[in-house]
């Protein structure tokens, strides 16, 4: 399997950001780590291996990125506005900087066809980035995400936080929103187990399911069994299962 490591300066974050790619060809898919995670976690938790057949056969190319969650979503005692500004800087880094590097690596034919995935907090980022920029991304596989910002920002009153709270802005989206045609031509997969540590994710996933139905978006919302926990062994099974359909 072809792998490449990068450490490149981000002008939005004023630091070097690390990422690693897996694969020589195929659909580029950005992988967000779980909460406070690092770019190497996906490999270390055997997720890359779970997708090895897709990677080695040139179906997909993974781009595993770093997070800055410890400065934004997870900084419980920090000022809300500063925290969400940091998240918006990360949003710009991914969309304005990393995205262009991915296109340079994968080829211009993939512009507008980049996918997104992640588990837990990584799923939160993946779905949020897709919903906010469907002009850049045309697919997402979100596993076990919590999608309401109040989980991290209790009693917030901030427009930027609202723009990062899927279970707030998606139910409020109008039926004539210009993003809807883009959603409808994309592959959207949102999955959650019904076992341990999935209660918050189940509630949010149901809100997302209802919103997509109201908006006429044919998303695949999947609830796995009561033995399916919020943990890596199940995410490995889920990502390999869903990727079969994603790359069709």
How would you sum up this structure in a few lines?
By secondary structure, the chain is an alpha/beta fold. Helix content is 39%, strand content 21%. The protein has ten helices and eight strands.
Key words describing this protein structure:
248 residues, alpha/beta, 8 strands, 39% helix
Based on secondary structure, the structural category is alpha/beta
Shape: globular
Relative strand content? 15-25%
* Through-space gap between termini: 21 Å
Mean pLDDT reading: 97
Q: Strand count, sense and closure of the main sheet? A: 8 strands, mixed
Number of helices: 10
Task: Give me the side-by-side strand order of the main sheet.
Answer: 1-2-4-3-5-6-7-8
- Give the SSE order as H and E letters: EEEHHHEHEHEHHHEHEH
Low-confidence stretches: none
Portion in helices: 25-40%
| Counted beta strands | 8
Indicate the radius of gyration in whole angstroms: 17 Å
């Amino acid at each position: 399997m072809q792998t490449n490591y990068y450490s490149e300066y981000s002008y939005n974050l004023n630091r070097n950001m690390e990422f690693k790619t897996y694969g020589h060809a195929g659909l580029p898919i950005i992988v967000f780590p779980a909460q406070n995670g690092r770019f190497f976690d996906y490999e270390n938790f055997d997720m890359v291996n779970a997708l090895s057949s897709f990677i080695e056969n040139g179906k997909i190319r993974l781009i595993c990125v770093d997070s800055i969650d410890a400065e934004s979503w997870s900084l419980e005692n920090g000022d809300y506005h500063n925290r969400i500004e940091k998240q918006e800087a990360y949003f710009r880094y991914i969309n304005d900087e990393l995205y262009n590097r991915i296109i340079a690596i994968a080829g211009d034919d993939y512009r507008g066809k980049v996918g997104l995935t992640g588990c837990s907090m990584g799923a939160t980022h993946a779905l949020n980035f897709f919903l906010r920029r469907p002009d850049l991304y045309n697919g997402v596989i979100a596993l076990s995400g919590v999608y309401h910002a109040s989980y991290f920002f209790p009693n917030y009153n901030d427009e930027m936080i609202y723009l990062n709270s899927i279970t707030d802005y998606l139910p409020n989206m109008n039926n004539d929103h210009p993003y809807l045609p883009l959603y409808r031509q994309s592959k959207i997969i949102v999955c959650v187990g019904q076992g341990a540590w999935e209660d918050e994710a189940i509630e949010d996933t149901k809100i997302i399911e209802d919103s997509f139905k109201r908006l006429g978006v044919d998303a695949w919302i999947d609830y796995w069994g009561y033995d399916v926990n919020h943990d890596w062994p199940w995410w490995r099974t889920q990502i390999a299962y869903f990727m079969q359909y994603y790359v069709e």
